[in-house]
Structure formats: structure tokens, C-alpha cells
Specification:
8 helices, 208 residues, two-stranded antiparallel ribbon, single chain, mainly alpha
């Protein structure tokens, strides 16, 4: 990883070698029956817009959707090529760490997918064949929100809206529980905060 290192006994350290206390619910504290009901009710009442979002975010790698947003922001704020490269570098390195941590928790807890609890679910997308909790899409989206909002603070409302939309799309697709997305966003934002805290110390400027 780039910003987070692994210590002993499955603990993780930030760039300042401080232990990270992860802000994510233990799946034993989640009512999965209620979560399955939410998925079932959501799939029964999907709008065309929700189906579009599920397919838009689920058809390609998430960074394929977010990277053009970054280039549009670079075009708008014109930070210059070296700074633009720096934004892209920090973003992709942060997303790498977000995926590593999402998969760490996925296989630590090995939570089943909605269609494993409810065998008759008719999903918009095919269900991935690895654990559900937390959603990697949502974790990456939460991390992107934190990092990009640091570099482009005037864009925070728009960035937050888009990243939350990305996370919700996994519920619309029927491949994740709502809590997978909610907790994934929270985990991703925490990872993004780790990166932003380092950026502040390095005094890398924001663009406004």
C-alpha cells in the first residue's frame, strides 16, 4: 500500500505510524434479515433511472468513471501539468489502498451476497463471486470523495452527490446490501482522511 501499512495482529498504521481504529461496523452487529428486505423492496420498485445508474457504474471499473471527472476539474481549474499529475497520482494511490482494505475486510468477515440469502432475487447485474461486505465500489467512492474534495473544495457538494450515487447503484443492481454501501462509504472516507492528513502536512495546495 502507499499510505497505510500493516502492523502486527492485523492492525494498520497511517503514514505517521499511528494505529488506525477503523470506523466500520462488525457484521455481527448488523440485522441481515432487515438488509435483505431492503434489497427485495428496492428491486421491486426500481425506476428506469436507478437501473441506468446500476448499469452505468457496474459496467466498467469504477476509476474509468471517476478519472474523466478529475480531468474535467483539471480543465476547469487549470492547476498546471505538474500539479495535475500530482492530483492523479495521489488519487490512484489512494484508491489502491481503498481496494486493499475493502478486500481485507471482505475476506476477514466473508459475508454472503444478497442472492445467497434470497435465492429468488432478480438482479439487474450478475453478482460477483466474492464476499459482499463492505462494497468495494462504495469504499473507492468514499475515498475519492475525500481526496478530490480536498484538491477541489468548491466541488464538494457535486463530488459527494456523485460518489453517493455510485455507492447506491450497487443496491439498485441487487448485488449489495444497503449496509455494504453505507459502511463502504464510511470506510472509504476514513481512508481518504488518512491521505488528506498527509497532504495537509506536505502542504500540497488546493485548487479553487
Amino acid at each position: 500500500m502507499f499510505f497505510i501499512s500493516r502492523g502486527r495482529d492485523n492492525d494498520f498504521l497511517d503514514p505517521f505510524q499511528q494505529r488506525i481504529n477503523w470506523r466500520i461496523k462488525n457484521p455481527n452487529d448488523i440485522d441481515w434479515g432487515t438488509e435483505l428486505f431492503i434489497v427485495e423492496q428496492t428491486l421491486k420498485s426500481l425506476t428506469s433511472q436507478q437501473i441506468h445508474l446500476a448499469r452505468y457504474w457496474g459496467a466498467v471499473e469504477i476509476t474509468e468513471r471517476i478519472t474523466p471527472i478529475i480531468f474535467n476539474l483539471i480543465k476547469k481549474y487549470r492547476p498546471g501539468s505538474p500539479k495535475a499529475a500530482r492530483v492523479l497520482g495521489y488519487f490512484h494511490a489512494a484508491i489502491n489502498d481503498a481496494f486493499v482494505m475493502a478486500w481485507f475486510f471482505k475476506y476477514l468477515w466473508d459475508v454472503a451476497r444478497p442472492n445467497q440469502y434470497g435465492r429468488n432475487l432478480s438482479t439487474v447485474l450478475s453478482t460477483p463471486r466474492f464476499p459482499s461486505y463492505p462494497s468495494a465500489h462504495a469504499t473507492a467512492a468514499g475515498c475519492a470523495e475525500a481526496v478530490l474534495s480536498y484538491f477541489f473544495p468548491p466541488e464538494l457538494p457535486r463530488i459527494k452527490k456523485v460518489m453517493e450515487e455510485c455507492a447506491r447503484s450497487r443496491l439498485y443492481a441487487g448485488v449489495h446490501f444497503k449496509v455494504d454501501n453505507d459502511e463502504g462509504l464510511r470506510l472509504g472516507r476514513q481512508i481518504g482522511e488518512v491521505v488528506v492528513n498527509l497532504l495537509k502536512v506536505q502542504n500540497l495546495h488546493t485548487f479553487q
